[in-house]
């Protein structure tokens, strides 16, 4: 303890007297050294404006690069595609006029002022006259010479497998408008696109193939039940691809007349009731699954009408909306009369003319 007190007194005694000149100089040097030390010096304040300048320059360069990459869209968009724009091309019938709308026709799914066509509630019609001969010539010019068998086999081997990355799934919406843009996006880096079809559109694959070729301008080179390969053509130029304005949302479907009437055409009320009860008590002709492949349903229904007057289709777990679509397609494809759908069961009557002739419609 005495030793510590003695050291403290010595320290105080030195501070009471002026320092020698040599010690004073060393103290000044040490103080300036600590002041210039980066952790304790205000050098960072001078660096902040430089850092901000560099960040501002980088941000300006990034904005310039983004502005160069993103093209400036000039609205309204003008598209020279030679057909009326619809949400679905394969699942709508332009000949059937709706009896009402769930929303006013002024709400265009392309957005306000984004397209030079007016939305009528079901379609955006083209403003210019369509020259079918000219359209077909342009399509043939893009397709070029027909592919040889070796070229077709090569494309089929590359794109027909289920693990193909160039695939588009076609669901219950059928050939939709935005699907055309997806096809052209795949054609930027691939010569062909694999299209997998499921659900109600597979009832009429010929109709699906027709609309895909007509709206996209390509050619189907391979078809296996519900698998399609769509070829873009020899002279296809991705830089000069057609302008396909996108639908920003799905429009509400309009209101159409009822598919099933209280009294079927050609029958009385009692006969209609009897036909419905007979159909409900008969075993189902076929059982349909949700989002399945219905490519052979039309043939089975036609064969069933050769032996029976009333048929039942089991559509459990398919959904009521899909049941109505299936019944509407079978009415047009088989020329039969849907008389009831209850508890996801579709009852079909082959019609009065077929009953009188004694054979099912062909």
From TrEMBL:
<protein>
    <submittedName>
        <fullName>Uncharacterized protein</fullName>
    </submittedName>
</protein>
